Amino acid sequence: MSFITSSESGPIDLSEILLCLANNILCRVVFGKKYVEESNGGKSRFDEILKDTQAFLGGFMLVDFFPWLGWIHKFDGLEAKLNKTFTEMDEFYDEVIKEHVKKELKPEHEDFVDVLLRVRCDSSQKITLTIDQIKGVLTDMFIAGTDTSSATVVWTMTELIKNPTEMDKAQEEVRRILRMKDMIKEEDLSQLSYLKLVIKESMRLHPPVPLLVPRETIENCTFLGYDIPAKTRVFVNATAISGDPKFWKNPEEFKPERFLDNPIDFKGQDFEYIPFGAGRRGCPGITFAMPLVELVLANLLHRFD
């Protein structure tokens, strides 16, 4: 958890605000609007459902490790809570999809739901989408795009606070280049070269998904002398890889300059640094996540001490 301080209101929970921000931005992109409740501190209607869903997906469930003990969750209340959360999410999606279907005129700016519904109804497309598949894609968008983006900003701010020299460099760059602007916009980001180094180094130390998304072997195989049967779940430890002293000098130190004139990037082509995964199963949200993270950090550094 990360905090900033205000002289007027005291400590502000930056972690909570950034998660809410990421969620609201994604709501605008996916649904075309924010589902905000002013009485709930500006949080989206979707916030609580999403928070519960992320807790289930990232939390400990005995059945994940011992499938034959799944019956226990019928008695400890976990299965009932799980069903309730996903029923609420399903009902929310139904409401959103109905709103989009009822639109009489084609919207000037399509949101993500508009695009999915258009693809579903287009007979010329080779892709066939069911409503359940659309709901699954929407869930992937929120699970993958909210907590990861906000956590990256929080970890980066944490590292900058711990390393005041690097903080000064990043802040000086933002304020020198964009000193006449009240708010930094996406078109300004290309000028902030040191900030990009800071974010790269932060994601090296703190990958958004430390174990990446689990994979499963589809057939028996032998790897480095180990026989791995089909249906084996495989975890890739991105944190261990990006902290391996074979590839990184002083890997525990926060040194953004290590990426200066360094061809290693996070796009999945350099296997010693894979915060977004690699190959055809790498995260498709890089081009959405990076401008979001850069914009938030640039404005925090520009507007606050």
UniProtKB/TrEMBL annotation:
Protein name, per record: Cytochrome P450
GO terms, molecular function: heme binding; iron ion binding; monooxygenase activity; oxidoreductase activity, acting on paired donors, with incorporation or reduction of molecular oxygen
Source species, domain of life: Eukaryota
Residues the record lists as binding heme: C283
Entry keyword annotation includes RNA-binding: no
Homology family: Belongs to the cytochrome P450 family.
Keywords in alphabetical order: Heme, Iron, Metal-binding, Monooxygenase, Oxidoreductase
Cofactor(s) named in the record: heme
Membrane-crossing residue ranges in chain numbering: none
Biological source species: Kingdonia uniflora
A Pfam family it matches: p450
Signal peptide limits: none
Single GO BP term: secondary metabolite biosynthetic process
